[in-house]
DNA sequence: ATACTTACTTACATAAAGTAAGTTAATTAT
DNA sequence: ATAATTAACTTACTTTATGTAAGTAAGTAT
């Protein structure tokens, strides 16, 4: 990447949030801990990419993976404090979309 | 895409903002109108993708392209009201990154 | 034993982004 | 007058990211 004069922290944040699905995964987890297959079906992401994203988000300290040693084993993904702190961003996106995005109601008759 | 229970306006907003470079372009234009090459060098995007993104953003009504018929012709890109309204989102991202992203100061000696 | 579920991974196909060179039109430098 | 430079792109080609589908391992239900 080329040298820019933009704050590196901000750029880092964008490089995380910019990635496809990241925001939706976080949005989904704001409703509470969820299992792999629930996130998968909840937002319509493929398992391949979800697996990849969850690893990234774990590495960034945004998501925590917890294994419950029941039988069968249960694995849950939860937002960390850092992850929960993303809520105001998503809220802002929501209110922007409410104000500025039109629903092109494509109801086929 | 698979059917989800997420608000379509919100999904639409994310599909715009999620795209690589979109947020940085808007961020750059919050400083005022800019020319193609200034955005290009300002954020380190390639001309190919910048051209593509500006067209997308124009289509979404976020950016306005203005041709000044001087010689040589000058073309400026400006945020519309809809585009300016994205500022609070970027501000939120900024404050999140200030609080949660660490600078891994990789100063090579 | 067979089928089903969860949480993945692997292999392969398609779409998006990066790189570099080319285009057009006008401008300035020699 | 010719050559080089700048702005705003486009085109061709390569690399990376994402999607699709099938496979795996461990356990459960019938």
From TrEMBL, chains A, B:
Keywords noted in UniProt: DNA-binding, Transcription, Transcription regulation
Keyword Signal: no
GO molecular function: DNA binding
Matches recorded under InterPro entries: ArsR-like_HTH, HTH_HxlR, WH-like_DNA-bd_sf, WH_DNA-bd_sf
Residue intervals of the HTH hxlR-type domain: 7-105
Keyword set includes Nucleus: no
One Pfam family it belongs to: HxlR
Protein's name according to its UniProt entry: Transcriptional regulator
Organism: Filobacillus milosensis
């Amino acid at each position: 990447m080329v040298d820019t004069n933009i704050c590196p922290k901000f750029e880092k944040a964008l490089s995380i949030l910019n990635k496809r699905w990241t925001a939706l995964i976080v949005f989904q987890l704001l409703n509470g801990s969820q299992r792999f297959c629930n996130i998968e079906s909840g937002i319509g992401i493929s398992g391949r990419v979800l697996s990849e994203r969850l690893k990234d988000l774990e590495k960034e300290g945004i998501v925590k993976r917890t294994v419950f040693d029941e039988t069968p084993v249960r694995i849950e993904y939860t937002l960390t404090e850092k992850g929960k702190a993303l809520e105001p961003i998503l809220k802002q996106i929501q209110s922007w979309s409410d104000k500025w995005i039109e629903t092109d109601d494509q109801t086929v008759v």
